[in-house]
User: Fold these one by one.
Assistant:
Number 1:
Amino acid sequence: MSLRGRHLRGQRLRGRRLRGLHLRARGQHLHARRRPLLGVLATLCAALLLASGTPHPASAAAQDAGNDPARATTQAAALADLLRTNPVHVTDQLPRDVPRSAAPDFAKLAKRTGVPTYVLVLPSQDRGDRLLGAVHDRLGRDGLYVLVDDTGVSDAAAYGVRAPADDAFTVSLYELPYDAGPLLSFERFTDVIALGGKKAAERADAARKKSEAAGGDDVEKMHIDPVDRDNQSFVTGIALTGVPLLIILLSPYLRRWIRRQRGPSAKDPRAKDPSAQDPGAKKQQPSSPRRHFTPLRIEAGVAVLAAGAVALGAFLAFHEDSARTSPPPTASDLSSRVERVAAGLKQEGQANGAVYSDPESPRPLDSAQRRELLDRIGKFDRGPIRIALVPQLTEDESGGETEIFVEAVRQKMGAKGAQGVYVVADPLGGSIDVVTYDVRIDANRIAFDLPDSIRYGDDDDRSADHRLGERLDDLMTFLDKSPRSARAETSSLGMDDAPDPVEDEALRPLFSGDFWPGLMVGALAAGLLFGIVAAFLGLLRLSVPGLRRTPATTVAADGTLGFTAPPDPSAGFLRRTARDELDSLAREFDPDAALRSAVRTRVYDCLDTATLLADRDPDGHVDDDATPADLAAAIVLARVGRSALKGNDKPCCALNPLHGPSTGWRDAQYSPDDQRLRTIPVCAQCRVLVEVQPRLAYTLRLTLPGAGRSERVPYEDAPGPLPAIANGVPQLIRQVREYAGVQ
């Protein structure tokens, strides 16, 4: 539906709610008081009519028509004739919202009320209550009269029967959303009528209180519109990229963050060595098979599954494919009014034109205006003029496009409608549109120079007939004064056919439209959320003492330093620790301090060689191209230098040189391939396990990152000078200087 159509529908809906407020304020008890009074007045009028010898129907017709035979058949009389034939009349002017083929459904629902029910489905009327009263007077039958427009039940009144019309209207107004549609609104109306007066009043009161408690907000709508579908597509696109990307970004980070908070800890050796649980079991060399399900692969698989779940869930949740609230119209529904108007113009046709007035709409022309208009049409010598007084609505077969409607009527009229001036005057909205076909009038003058006072009327005009009679007379004057063109011209722009009502209400596919921008926004949102989580966890680690990183250096009671490091450090850990240890050694070492010559030399050599490995520039920063083996050697040298300042000059721990100087010698199995126990220096941290399970000491041996992502290399096999630490610190220093010279 177009924006103009939705605006007009919203205006009619607000008018419907205002009428509902009026009905509730009036109350059902006023109907009860009015009916006896109407009965007395009707009796008195009948007596007077009989006394005067004038039949009652003729008198009523004369009053309505103002003694005008041309207006004797008023809108109410025409509708009464239709209801006399069928108690349910569905107009052919709203096929896009209420097709005529839905009339059996309305008739079936009308039988639920238990009283004679007369239903009129018409375009929105300004005074529906008066129209129902006039139709009842014309029809002369008691019953429940209901007026339905394209939004739902708009007015209802009970004449001579007991039916809670006001309460049923209140329930249909407040219990249903505005997009429920006419058929569902009438169904709710009839259900409440069938409840009876007491239950209907209770339900209406409950609906009114619920609406007041909600602050007057409308009930959540039942159907989505194109804007809702765009929102669904946008959200789906955000979730489809945001959720998987967030899993891929956040899961590894959280995994590393948790591992960092746990700090280095001795793992249970029994899980790695079956001989620790069963001493009699034969020791087997672990084959170290390649793992197919690494954490990164698992996280990638979870991300793919999450994307599939989002896509499938969105497809199932947002399954609507149409915004229609009623059954789709048939071809007969869409052509019915055009055929009726074309037949009416043929029937009313004269030599130079015709005037056709829609019987379902108000009659804006009286007898004198009609005669005068026909006289002026007969004197027009440029071609026939055909005037159709019919509403133009966005819900009709042409979608409110006058030129499409005129073209359809012209084709239905056949040869008689081949050329002429076609005028469409809307008795409900008051607009006048003119389209010319092959007449000797300047087409541009008709299309662009028609005064607004004729086309739309005055803004301050509040008359019920929109002064259509006077404005049509002004239009004839405008046509008479229009210069005669040299050749016949046509003002029609040749517009395409009206959009198909089914396609017009169809929703775009979910994975289209705003779905593509949603994909980009989802990626940006995932990155933003990852940054927020990372910043929060960083602040949390700094502010909560229990979450801070385990310090790499501890000071014992005797002043000696203890160093920590995992047996399988990552490249990031080695880079951070090398930077911290170099900074600490440079800060703690004072060349001018009173130190023994051997200590000063040892500390200086350690600082110099550690810098050669990690900061060759030197610019005060760890080199980006420093290998893990070089970083590990730099850490060892820096920690040896710091321990020398504290008076500890013992050999480094043979299992993990990153632990710094040892605290003693113990027998331990150094390699999983060698079953012998060797006497090696170990630090206090490694000694805890070695004294209990010496054959599992090799599980604490330092390994460094290799070429592959999951490959680990024992430090004795690492490239560079690091393996020389097994022969002592002086040998490591010598090897580093030779290595740096070659580099």
Note: The two ends are 76 Å apart (CA to CA).
Number 2:
Amino acid sequence: MSAEATNPGAPLRKRGRPRIDLRRIGRVALLGPVSRDRLPDAIGHVADAHRAHHPDADLVILRKAYVLAESSHRGQMRKSGEPYITHPLAVTLILAELGAETTTLTASLLHDTVEDTEVTLDQVREQFGEEVCYLVDGVTKLEKVDYGAAAEPETFRKMLVATGNDVRVMSIKLADRLHNMRTLGVMRPEKQARIAKVTRDVLIPLAERLGVQALKTELEDLAFAILRPEEYEHTRALIAGSGGTEDPLTEIAERVRTTLRDADISAEVLIRPRHFVSVHRVRIKRGELRGTDFGRLLVLVSEDADCYAVLGELHTCFTPVISEFKDFIAAPKFNLYQSLHTAVVGRDGAVAEVLIRTHQMHKVAEAGVVALGNPYTLDSTAAQQSEPADGERADPTRPGWLSRLLDWQESAPDPDTFWTTLHADLAQDREITVFSTDGGTLGLPAGASCVDAAYAQYGDEAHGCIGARVNGRLATLSTVLSDGDTVQPLLSQDAASGPSPDWLDHARTAAARIAITGWLDAHPEDAQALVGQPDPPRPQSQPQQSQPQQPTDEASSGRSKQGARVASVAVDGPGTAVRLAGCCTPVPPDEVTGFTVRGGAVTVHRQECPAVARMQAAGRPPVGARWNDDGDWRDAGECRVTLVAESFGRPRLLADLTEAIATADAAIVSATVEPPSEQRVRHTYTLHIPDAAGLPALMRAMRDVPGVYDVSRAQHQTSTT
């Protein structure tokens, strides 16, 4: 196996390039700057690596940056005993190997000068320009991050703010951490463990999100060796033991080359060893490892179409393992990754995993955002258009997940909430794209629901969401979205409405969870009223109503908090508390009757409510009840009612129904849309109406909505105790 698999601390190098001796570079650095007509020998390797990716790169600025870095760090030593200049040189070399552009490499050479020497940002700006100054300033802020246990959440929040406007800052930080992890052996074990833990929990997921697989895999192995030494040693022994036997991937790779050559497909077929953590994961998944589990085949071609041609030949000439096929070219991962994944069966049943991609896809797969170059090399007009008024810059290469991360970190109420949601967000390993009805797109994590889409599109306005349409069909807020869905959240006209605690069960994005939690914390009484509220409404012992009725000598008669008169009922028996049943939501002029419930209160039902028949059958004596106002129910005041609308499914149906309700001056308290059955849809609305006399007109207006064939009062099955 290659050194990549057997030595996790080995730097990534192109084939044929000599090993880089940082101690020798350090000795050269101590000799001071050389003449101005050539590059210092100490950065010769950086120059070679940079020219390999950018043949026309101007290296003068690199020489100038090295001279400043070396002179400013002269006399400083690392804990390993090496001259300090070896660190920025190593970090810059890592980025040069990945293909970073000249500006990033210049900033990398200078990334510690402002923090650790007398060099100022103004000097950097004057000598190297605004872009390099911006990057050095961002990395300097990261150097101040304290990864101590108590400070971790808040300091990492600051790190995101410092780096979020330019992903190149985070790329330099990742390369900086990689070199520090390579040389971590000089530190105390407890400090090694603390740094490795933060690397594992935060920086490795960020490297994955940025698509920088070359950094991510080596960081994983280094952290694995420190945090789980026994499992690391076991995995190392397995990899070392596999090198003494004939590699079955070699035989399969040769067969693949022959197959593609016969099909006249120009391709490069390589054996790509798995790194330590990858081998460990395969062992956990499969138990006993096979010879082909220590690596994968990588097929590189020139054009996208050739990828599918290779796939066709492999599936024709080999037995494919269909369950292993994934198309990340048609649907790229959230971190820009593109490739075809498949697996084929060789002789003796050996299964080989195969990755198929173009050379450009491979470059992006290894280097991620680093391979995209300078995102600000735009023409002057485009640059001006992308420059916001507040001076912050919008990075055209910044992934959607990072934009969302920066948005919700401002709303996180405290560091612990931020830290918890950050871990959950970074744990998401796949992203989907859904479309809004106006043609816009929303990037969401896999498993996201309509709740997430509502908050992603409308922010805090989504508190009033009552449902959604997915691909033109009515759907509940808990509906899980798929890649490519079109979603339209439907908002209530009632500005006072808010989310249910149940929404937290369906929210997958940090933005949605923080917004919902914030509303519930700010409205504890409303939140408590919604806890455990079933659909249909609650049993009679906990009825849904706009205001609790207050008892009088003979009846309950009250007013709302705003002073408006509320419909009230009188019952037989002085000093009796009265409640309107939530199962049938009676309103004037319904014929009503009451039953005594636990605690001595009387719950009033409509005469035709199924609960009335059940309680009479059980021998429960009824209590006489009647509407107040001497029977003049036409001026009974505001009340709450539950209506059921049955309709045929069609586009805009829910929007038209809610519009009809709003036109009748009714406010939606809660709404439920059942999944369509045979093109028929059932809607249940609990409404607050300003006057019971308007109920017949409201029901007629709802029946007039095209597609609605019936509107009736709710008759929920419930029990009374």
Note: The mean pLDDT is 76.
Number 3:
Amino acid sequence: MNPLKCAKFALAASIALAATNAQATPTPLPTDSFAKIPAIQSVTMSADGKRLVAIIAAPGSNNGDTALANWDMDKLGSGPTSITPSGDRMKFIAASALKAGKTLVIGRQEFTGQLSGCGEGNSTGATKTFLTKAYLTDPSQTKFDEAFADNTRKLGVSEQTQRCLELAGSASLVHSLPLDPEKVIISQMNELTLSANYYLFNLATGKTELLFRGGTRASPGLFHPRNGELLTRSQIEPLGSNDYEQQILIKNKDNGQFDKHDALTTKLSDRYTMEVAGIDDATGKLYILTDKFSDQVQAWQYDPATKTFDKEPLAAHPQYPIGGLIIGTRPSNFNQVLGFYVDGPRREAVYVDPQMKALSDSLKQAYPGQYVAITGYNDDLSRVLYTTSSASKPTSYFVLTDKKSVTSLGSERPWMDSNQIGEQRWITYTARDGRKIPAILDLPAGWKEGDAALPALVHPHGGPWARDYTGWDASGWVPYFTSRGYAVVRPQYRGSTGFGRDHWIAGDKQWGLTMQDDNDDAAAWLVSQGIAAKDRIAIFGYSYGGFAAAAATVRTPSPFQCAIAGAPVTDLARLGVSWSENRLQRILQGQTVKGMDPMQHTASAGIPVLLYVGDRDVRTPAFHARGFYNAVQGKVAAKFELIPDMPHSMPWYPRHYQATLPLMESFLRSDCGPNGL
């Protein structure tokens, strides 16, 4: 019997949540606890277990800047063998240990000027933004070369286009090809067509070999993990005037041609998930992640020879989607399915491989009440990199050596007092139309049922095609406010992904309408449970969550005393489909961005509102927040702050947290409703 099919029945329907030991009275955690650069982050180990790389706080910077660190695993206890601080402009934000002694590091810097037609924000005029680039270096970290770039001048390419691609970056890592000692798969922008080509890239020599020439409608799918051979590709074709068909074509091993498979072809408007996740070496069957047969995404096997799916899923869960397969990358388990991920309250790894399951189970037993994730290992498991975290404890990094000795690399934020953060719960409430809405509830330390009702925040996530997970909130917003005595509820409103296709599609064209009802109904639930005082509830969101806060400002009657809109969209008419660089995303989501437009209803503004946005935000440019502020300031108490040098997406720099966290706290205390929150 297939062990994966057995595992789906053995998996518990409920996933344990971490809770902290409560303390009688929470003490506000300082802004600096969240603003400081993490002591360590982005930790990876090379596949052979010989090197470790990470981004650390630069020595002497008082956690104000980042540095790239490299460890020799044979001398792990002696600390990094090399540390390279970020430059004055280019700041390291992520790193990865590759093979052939190479490290891939991502850097980011401010840029002001014309992007000349490429890059996010190119249509907003003279652009203040950030540029992100990838670099390759070796363990000495003395030389950094732009990763995978082809810097030769191309005939027929204008200087403007060439400059544009130099600024915005033109190449990225696609697949690591674990068994090959030197080669990886990269994508590289074709300057003539502005579409991506895919190459085998030799890390040792820098030589390339073309694998796939991209186009406007075609993209590669599955590369064989052993040799990089392209096995599948996707193609978008028009289907009538307003729809498209997404085809998955599979390479015919007899003639080398790519054949269309109707069983894998879907209409974009139907929004079925259809992802090729791997191939079974023994049978040639493909692993497919799809919700075609269930409201939740399941893992199936598909036989290209017979063009049929198996009769039963490979892995499934009754409540939550299968978020991916865990496929072996080391010689001893290469390309074997070791387990799968269940995207429940948080992403949970379920191992079916006996060796990996035993390792995972033993680590979980060693850290009760925490989430443990295996993030790297060598072939004989003599060196294993893993992390621990919980709702009250930021991520910590460890190395298990010879299955018995543990070396702590440290916590991202070792200064954080977890006793001040409180308790986290996974809850479900019923919206006014009967839909069940999942949510995460965070409570201040020491509060229990029967205590006095709390001030509270309804905190919808961004996206909206996204979701929240339980565990440590990397933004810092939730623990910042729970340590100040607030209850925080994060509704997974309709339109959120990860809770079934029906829940996702229910948000179509419902911006500010039933999606907003779900946020209002979260406030009503807090009151009904005795958690929140009816006159002490605010709404705070960022990006799409900022839209929800702006919408709450003009919807009447409102359950909220005030709203905080971070980097909001407020003008749906001006949003259009220009907000995404991804053409498929624009086609898919652009048709669903409809509903109640806050800018068309500013005359109905009824509660105080704080709007803030970074002046380097090109995803939701400042005109959204500023325009809304100008329209409502004479009707309600309104504030607008333009944050210097802040981009839309994290990671932010310490000064961005220092500007925004006290700003929000002060507004809630002093300007939210008649008496503040």
Note: The first strand starts at residue 40 and ends at 45.
Number 4:
Amino acid sequence: MGKSVLVTSILITGLVLGVRQLGWLEFLELVCFDNMVRLVGDTGPDPRLLVVTITEADLQEQKQWPLSDRTLAEVLTKLQQSQPTAIGLDLYRNLPQPPGHESLMQQLQAPNVITITNLGDTNAEGVSPIPGLSPEHIGFNDFVIDPDGVVRRNLIYAYQGQEQYYSFSLRLTLKYLEQQGVTAKVHPNVQLGNIIFPPLNSNSGGYHNIDNAGNQIMISYRSPKQIARQVSLTQVLRGEFQPEWVKDKVVLIGTTASSLKDLFFTPYSASESANPAMPGVLLHAQLVSQLLSTTLDRQPIFWFWSEWAEYLWVWTWALIGGVIVWRIRQPLILGVMEVISLGVLCIICFSIFTQAGWIPIIPAMLGFVVTGGSVLAYKLRYNSLHDALTNLPNRDLFLQQLEWAIADTKLSQNARFALLFLDIDRFKVINESLGHQVGDQLLIQATQRLKAGLGRRGKIARVGGDEFAILLENITDSQEVNCIADQIHKAMSLPFYNNGQEIFTSISIGIAFSQTELESEPVTLLRDAHTAMYRAKDQGKGRYEVFATGMHTQIFKRFQLEIDLRRAIEKEELYLQYQPIVSLATDKIIGFEALVRWQHPVHGFVSPAEFIPVAEETGLIIPLGKWILLSACDQLSIWQAQFPSNPPLMMSINISGHQLSHPDLVEYIEKILHQKSIDGENLKLEITETVAMNDVEAAISILLKLRTLNLRLSIDDFGTGYSSLSYLHRFPVNTLKIDRAFVSRMEDTNEDAAIVETVIMLSHALGMDVVAEGVETAEQKAKLKKLGCEYGQGYFFSKPLDSESATALLKQQFENITDPNSLK
């Protein structure tokens, strides 16, 4: 996990908590609270309660409101006959409503009757308690309405100095608990039996800075509809109820008629479109039921975390959101994980809520989402400026760094920097032969070596596939840069390891220095270093070159050559010449070597030494090689038909390393042999010694596949490479070609003559024949013949010829002109 994730999660947590402190999240938290209340489910009616409702029908029956004292006295009398534990009169009443006032007062004096008042409004008309009643018979209305108009809290107890106030629901609960032998303590917190009711703090749960006066608790709603059994006022007056419905119960009397507007919004209101508000008497029944259930049934009381625990909770989810985004790269998987994580958060919060725990969900969710979004934005920005494989800055970021370095040199005349452009030699070969996974590991290991070697002396970036750039700032002289380049070469010359396999490579470096007197652009400097790197490659790789004026011209010429070569292949500007291969014993032509030539429409003749390396580097050698094979075989089939001989004429064709490793080489040659009706014995493929030894096992495998077509195989320029004699006998080749350099010096030095003799003896010992290249004199021919060399090739016999001239030469031989001088 990056430090950026940790820092981001802390900052976002602070931001979210700051927003929460402002109270901006309270509404959303209360909405979540309401939804969880509804999800908890209906626990059914409380059997300890009975509600006597005053409905619209009851008002029509009585034909008056407020009800007369006699009616209320009659209701109380009938209920008392069934021996209730407590009766709560949820009706504000402080003025007599004759007739029957004395009868009502007598009933209200009963020890189990509780009336209601509104705390703080004792002098208001119609709200103050009935005069003449002792405080034990009066409880205040304990509803606490939140700013959004919803009742979620219950004020069960309050005090002012020595004066204590009990809520309506607490008075009724205490009356019921007296019969159960449960005592109560109400200072400083309400305690019923062994159960303590801890009060709400100003920031409990999702609240922020609420009025927490007195002892407030969160309401655990029992049911949105059937809180308790209900009977109407008229039913009680007529005696239409069972005595057991009342006996030992808490009976509440109150209005449910909507016209009286004694209605309150609850967490259920949002889902109750028909009756969104709950009558006050039913809400009081909820509160009494909660107190009784908590005390007697051990129903859990709402609990809350301390502030520091909530801070840790929010930060944890912010951190989780950041880590998920940082670790997961696939967008689809990331989206799924985000949804799953938010689902887990909701499940955790709801599971705790079912156990009466209210922990903040919105701040945690907000921290998760905002941190994830911030980290995602940072990650996208980071990824746009960094390489995914090596985690190095990419080309875009490096150019920015280079621009800053240029700006520093303008501010300070003494500030200088150097730019190094690095390219791993033979990386493409390694990548293609050993696989991209090995290539990736090589790049990672190379990055680690560059970092270890540079330390804090330079800034490294990956600016291409196997290309790196290094910015060295505040350099004192060029020698310092040269020393660093030498250190890089030494580090990169050590073998790389992949599953125990050693991989050797080198690195080519181009260096460009800042020039304060010139207006340099980052792209220009990078191009200069890149040009110097190409110069280093052209000079033999594994070295460094400093950029100098004029290099661009050379590079441009090479790129133009590549463009022209592509066009030349498409427009068939290339052609073949054929150099005879002669038997030294008979002086007869036994075949030809096909040599590709290019006549540029503007620049004239272009040497193969110029365009063949370009074709190799750009991959153009594949289509070019196919064209050479097809054209040479086509010419061979014509000559074999025109000049039949025994054995038939043969054709030698050079095959590059790229062609040799191409997957469809064998199939393509087989197709050509079939199309041109050529026996594989008459086609000889020549590979250089260096290509053969580059990857011995792979070369042997491919050559064995080619031998299945009966092709003849030859190693070209033998003696100039680094062949190992322990491998040579394993190559399924027929011919070794002695390089022209040894043949030309054979008469001048004993060493070269000895090399030629040794190669001929070695070839014969391995069952191979020998072709000597570059035969230019009769003495060279005679000496080669004496040493047992079978074939010769060179200007002594003939220079490379076009097809018409070669045909004329064959015609002379076919007409039995045997004078060797005629072949010159």
Note: The longest helix spans residues 331-354.
